[in-house]
Structure formats: C-alpha cells, structure tokens
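Worked example (supplementary).
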Amino acid sequence: MFYLIEQLFLLLLIAFVIGLFVGWTTHQTDNTQQ
Amino acid sequence: MTMFIIQAALLFAIAFFLGCIIGSLLKRMFGAEKMSATAETAPSSSVAEKRPVEPSKPEPKKSPAEKEEPVEKTIEKPAAKKPAKAVSKSKPAKAKTASAPKVQDDLKRIKGIGPQNESRLKSIGVTTYAQIAAWSKGEQKEIGERLSFPGRIEREDWVKQAKVLAKGGDTEFAKRVDKGDVDSSKGEAKSVSTGKQPPVMNTAPDTGADDLTQIDGVGNALEKKLNAIGIYKFDQIANWTAEHQEWIGHELGFSGRPERENWVGEAKALASGKLAKATAKSKRGAITAKRKK
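After joint prediction of all chains, the assembly is encoded as:
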C-alpha cells in the first residue's frame, strides 16, 4: 500500500513538473503583446 | 480498483493543471523581473545567470505542500496568486522607463547592429551586452519591431552573440570589427553626431497616441518609424528644435524632410487644436495632398 502511495506521489510530482514546463513555455509575457 | 485509477488520473490532471498555472505565473513574474533588471543596471552577466535558478526554486517548495491535499490547494492557489498578477503587470512599463546603465558596450560588435541600430537601442536604454543577452523571445520580437526589423534579432542571433561578448569572449564578427574590417561598424555613427535627439517616450502614452499621419508628409510608414523612435504626440513634434529635426530626419532616412515640410508648424497647430480642419482630415486627404506634391 505504501509503495502504491509513493508511486502516486511520484506520478503527481512528475505531472506537476510537466505542467510547470508547459505553463512556462506556452505563456506569453505581457510585454510581447504591447 | 477502477475508482482508484480514476482518482489517480484526476489527481494527475490537477497536478498538471496546477503546474501550468504556476509555470505561467512564474514566467510572467520572472519575465517582468528580467525586464526591469535589464533596463535598470547589472552590466555583468548576473542577469543572465538568474534565469535557470529562479524557476526551479519555488517548485520543490510547492510540491510537498501539494502532496498532502492537492484538491484543496487548487482552489486556494489561483485566488492567492491573483494579486501577484496585478503587480507584475505594472512592472514592464516601469522597467522601460528606467534609466540606462552607466556602463556602455560597443554594440556594433554584434553582427546586425550598425550605427543606426545602436543609436536606436541606446534611445530605448539598451547599452550593454548583458542586457541583450538577457532578452527573452518575446522581448526580441518586441524590440525587433521597435527597430523596424521584425525577426532580425532572432535571425542574426544577437542574444547568442551578446552572451559571448558579455562574458568577455569574442565572436568571429567582433574580431573583424576590432581589426577594422567592417566598415559599417567603424567609429561612432554619423547619424548620432548629426543633430540632437529630441525627448522621446519609451512607451505609447496611456491617453493614446496621436494620429501622426495627419501631418502632411507623414504616412503610415513614417508614423511607425516615429513611434519606434518614441514619438507619439503632436506636442512632442511641436517642441522640436532645428537640431531635433535634423536628428529625426537622419533617423528616418529623409534628411531635411521635417524642416522642408514644416512638421513642427503643423504639429503645433494640431496640438493646439487650431487646425480643426486638419484634425478632421482623413488619411485619404493626407495622401492626396502628398500626391499633389
């Protein structure tokens, strides 16, 4: 059970990091739109 | 079991979404910080070095918190981040108006920057390699447009060159410039020495830019160039001295034209509202007037 939860957390962490990367790369800063 | 899988997938999606939000927020905040850093000071490479460190910092802090109750956090975080957004929005404008650093590099050692581009860059507060080295893609695009050469900065890779030069290295082109093999980069720009730069605005005024094409002799292309230099309002033009007109004429590539076409006189009339007809005059009218000439 503990192993499973650990796996899940790891997965979540990976998802978070991927999200962070996607958010970072796709976001356009305000000054580019001016 | 299926319930568990669904739950896990849901959590995965939430974590991803959260990451997206935080990532974009970080980019926005960090992008704004970088702009102010480039415009204010720091001629050293410390600006460029900031980049890889910052985005990774908050990440470990947030992930343990998220591990506990990810679902609840998603509700809290976007709300908590909103004020930060509002603050960061105002930053780029502030950064642009900041004064240029005292240390000045010879920007002409970058391939693609000639005397004219150098003086334009200086007029917007870019004087060091470190500043150019720290430009993001968005900034490159924006500045390229301001210099009236969209895409050139990326094409000639000014940032990469500037990074090398900022570290004290030499590019192939810089070596040639040092030897004096590149005519366009020799000495000070002639255009800089002719006339005097008038006061300019770094960004369009909040009240909106005036329609400069109402001045006879100024078409859409010239209006864009004037805006790129930082001329947006009639009263700016109205206050030009002979030296200013000379400088502007040179910058636009039409020496003597502002004087010849009496831009200052027209701008004065337009600014004071005396030239009511001209204010109401359409662009079409301006173009036909130009054709007559």
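Two points are worth noting when inspecting this output. Residues 2-26 of chain A form the longest helix (25 residues). Chain A has a mean pLDDT of 78.
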